[in-house]
Amino acid sequence: MTIHVKNNIHWVGQRDWEVQDFHGTEYKITKGTSYNSYLIREEKTVLIDTVDHRFSQQFLQNLEAEIDLNDIDYIVMNHAEEDHSGALTALMAKIPNTPIYCTENAVDSIVGHHHHPEWNFITVKTGDSLDVGNGKQLIFIEAPMLHWPDSMMTYLTEDAVLFSNDAFGQHYCDERLFNDEVDQNELMEQCLRYYANILTPFSSLVTAKIHEVLSFNLPVDMIATAHGIVWRDNPAQIIHQYLAWADAYQEDRITIFYDSMSNNTRMMADGIAQGIHDVDPNVAVKVYNVARHDKNEILAQAFRSKGILVGSSTMNNVMMPKIAAMLEEITGLRFRNKKAAAFGSYGWNGGAVDRIHTRLMDAGFETSVGLKVKWRPDRDAMQECRQHGQRIAKEWALRPLDSANSRSIINQVMSKPSQAVNQNAAPAITPAPAKNASLVVDDAQSMICTVCQWVYDPKDGEPNQDIAAGTPWAQVADDFLCPECGLGKSVFAVKKSEVNHA
Ligand code: FEO
Q1: 76, 314, 320, 344, 346 from 262: Cα distances, Å
Q2: Helix (H, G, I), strand (E, B) or coil at 144
Q3: Going by CA atoms, what residue is nearest to atom 3 of ligand 1?
Q4: Which residue's CA is the nearest one to ligand 1's atom 1?
Q5: Using an 8 Å Cβ cutoff, are 363 and 336 in contact?
Q6: CA–CA separation, 9 vs 13, rounded Å?
Q7: Which atom of ligand 1 is closest in space to residue 226's alpha carbon?
Q8: Alpha carbon distance 384, 172 (integer Å)
Q9: CA-CA distances (angstroms) from residue 293 to 71, 309, 341?
Q10: Which residues form the Flavodoxin-like domain (predicted)?
Q11: Labelling 47: which of 74, 87, 176, 286 has CA 20 to 30 A away?
Q12: Are 167 and 224 in contact (CB under 8 A)?
């Protein structure tokens, strides 16, 4: 089956209605997905991307129904991940000498997956072009880490179609191909879920790449993604949305998530949520049990939030494993501009809350004081939870609150008899360092790539780029590239454990 996209461009991809797991089992797909491949038939015939390897045979069968495979002059691989390059082995078995246009990084990852170094790779860089006849050209734009180091986009002149691969896509399946044809709420929900769970760590690159593409002053009539719909109605909307999401995005929203051994920490979550609502009825509050709710939905809600509250019972003096896993994932996603606080119930030792607090600080959140409750919260302890929520609401408010209303609610709670206050008192937790503390980088300090986490240590230098051992970061040439992900100096930051606060 093919779908006409524009002029001589047809969609020749594959829909996948039943897929539920992506990236192993880390990304739950709730609305299906598609693997979008496009066929351009000008004087030259070009195939843009293929499909997931599970659909190789079906893909070839469909393609052969449309054209003689030997008529394909060029293959463009915008990205080597298996959901896009998966059918290459089957395709190249039929047309083994066809040139494959891709980035230099993609040669490494395509060969790494398909084990055919003899394929006819032609590497391209940003600005390189390929004449396809009829006055049209393909222009290549490298897009490292959107979503792998090998990623690029391809632009077809005259038709003004940007083949963006993962960027601007979404795991969403519909028989209709274009954005204006589908349910808008479903579409934007899946766009946000995709961005929050996959692209957030690369937000600084998203911003830079979009501005770079805009600087070319190329008209964009359509954005043909590699997953989900094609943006033909106001494609700028998703570009603007990405710029907003990439800019330390937050809404007036608080997300609470927890795991609870005996329901006690869940009770605390309820009390805190009520307290927030008491003081700031306009803030959206959602509460999730990580053991029962969709992890990717929780992460998407956290991405949207101005702050998160993370709760766990103490088990063997540590937090519960599902909370630890969530914090690990949140650390990797590198959310910015968000506040956080820990809470939890304990029996004889409340180690979980302290550990959560430390992990939240390490993950870059601006932390507020945590809250511990011993055993099952009684009436007074539930009041303390509610009061805690009220304090959080005031501390995290994005605008002036109705102080008279807030004060009366707090006084009302404070005036009630308290039995458990002392033993349930919040732990003395050191606040996070002030965000505006000025940084001093000395010659011995290591620098970390904020994209792939590779570390430049001055005492080792980088021999592969002729940077001698003992070279401080300040003397590393401006054209230095991270040996791991290929990005420049601008994405490096002082390695956190070595930051000096002046
Ligand atoms: Fe859709 Fe990064 O693959």
Answers
A1: 55, 11, 12, 11, 10
A2: coil
A3: 81
A4: 166
A5: no
A6: 12
A7: 1
A8: 43
A9: 49, 16, 20
A10: 254-393
A11: 176
A12: no
